[in-house]
Amino acid sequence: MQDPTTDFLKPRLVDVTTVDAHHARITLEPLERGFGYTLGNALRRI
Predict the structure, then answer these.
(1) DSSP per residue over the chain, as a string?
(2) What is the number of structural domains in the chain?
(3) Is the pTM of this model over 0.90?
């Protein structure tokens, strides 16, 4: 039986850019379709 978590796209590019003391821009590529919204909603609540 195959592990279902191995079928997901995993980000190869992870880039964190500091904008200022309180903000950063995080880039993850590629992601599964629609998963960016899921991550974005989780990250904005931190």
Answers:
(1) ---GGGGS---SEEEEEEEETTEEEEEEE---TTHHHHHHHHHHT-
(2) 1
(3) no
